[in-house]
TrEMBL record:
Main location, first listed in the record: secreted
Entry keywords, A to Z: Secreted, Signal
Protein name: Trypsin/alpha-amylase inhibitor
Subcellular location: Secreted
Molecular function terms from GO: serine-type endopeptidase inhibitor activity
Gene Ontology cellular-component annotations: extracellular region
Signal peptide residues on this chain, from the entry's feature table: 1-21
Annotated organism of origin: Triticum turgidum subsp. durum (Durum wheat)
InterPro entries the UniProt entry points to: Allergen/soft/tryp_amyl_inhib, Bifun_inhib/LTP/seed_sf
Gene name linked to the record: CMx
Family matches, as SUPFAM superfamilies: Bifunctional inhibitor/lipid-transfer protein/seed storage 2S albumin
Record CDD domains: AAI_SS
């Protein structure tokens, strides 16, 4: 029992340490294209806020752009879409979803699954399971 608790604690600590290094290595404008952020934002908003027009085209565009992002950075794309990014000066560059207050929770849940088999079916740094763990994305995400 204690071994399981210790193993879980070590795994969570490693994941937390690793997520900070992903954020340092996955920079918007470099490894993460602004096109991937915008395409996936548009798709998520269309799917979760009631704007279903041409969703298949938006999905294709999001998945195509996300496939160009290195596996290491795909979960960071999702995190930035949901929470924004903190600059070196400590200024929060807001979530790309901040204007969607009426459907933000649904959008967060949807974005958490974009890399999954039902959507883009892309691998992440977490392997063939095609997901980004909620510990990495933040506690508000319900997958």
């Amino acid at each position: 029992k204690h071994q399981l608790i210790l193993s879980t604690a070590v795994l969570l600590a490693a994941l937390a340490a690793g997520s900070a290094s992903f954020r340092d290595r996955c920079v918007p404008g470099r490894e993460i294209t602004y096109e991937s952020l915008n395409a996936c934002r548009e798709y998520a908003v269309r799917q979760t806020c009631g704007y279903y027009l041409s969703a298949e085209r938006q999905k294709r565009r999001c998945c195509d752009e996300l496939s160009k992002v290195p596996e290491l950075c795909r979960c960071e794309v999702q995190r930035i879409l949901m929470d924004g990014r903190v600059t070196k000066e400590g200024v929060v560059k807001g979530s790309l979803l901040q204007d969607m207050s009426g459907c933000k929770k649904l959008t967060r849940e949807f974005i958490a699954g974009i890399v999954g088999r039902e959507e883009c079916n892309l691998e992440t740094v977490f392997g063939r399971y095609h997901y980004c763990p909620s510990e990495y994305l933040g506690p508000e995400v319900v997958v």
